[in-house]
Each structure stands twice: as C-alpha cells, then as structure tokens.
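Q: My hope is that you can spare some time for a protein that puzzles me. Underneath my words sits a plain record pairing an amino acid chain with its backbone structure tokens. Those tokens are not coordinates but codes from a learned vocabulary of shapes. Thank you; the sequence and its tokens follow:
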Amino acid sequence: MNENVVHQQAVAVVVAVVESELVDVVATSVEFVEAAVVASLVLEAAVEVIADV
C-alpha cells in the first residue's frame, strides 16, 4: 500500500467523523437556542406579571 493512499484514507475518515460531530453540535446548538428563546419569553412574561403587581 502506498503511503499517500493510507494518508488520504485517514484524512477521509477524520473528515467524516468531524462532519458527523459537527452535525450533532449544530443540532444541539439549535435546540439550545430554541430553549434559550423559550426561557427568555418566559422571563419576559414573568417580568410583566411582576411589574403589574
């Protein structure tokens, strides 16, 4: 086996793993952002309720 071929295969594996990890990270980030938006809306509503008291 040529060293170059082994190197290319290793790079391909690393790229595939990184891409799949990135997809997971992006999906997690989207969920986190959605949760943060919901939390901020809840906080806003709570602040309005407290301000009305």
Notes: The CA atoms of residues 2 and 15 lie 20 Å apart. The chain is about 95% helix and 0% strand. Residues 3-52 form the longest helix (50 residues). Residues 24-53 form one domain.
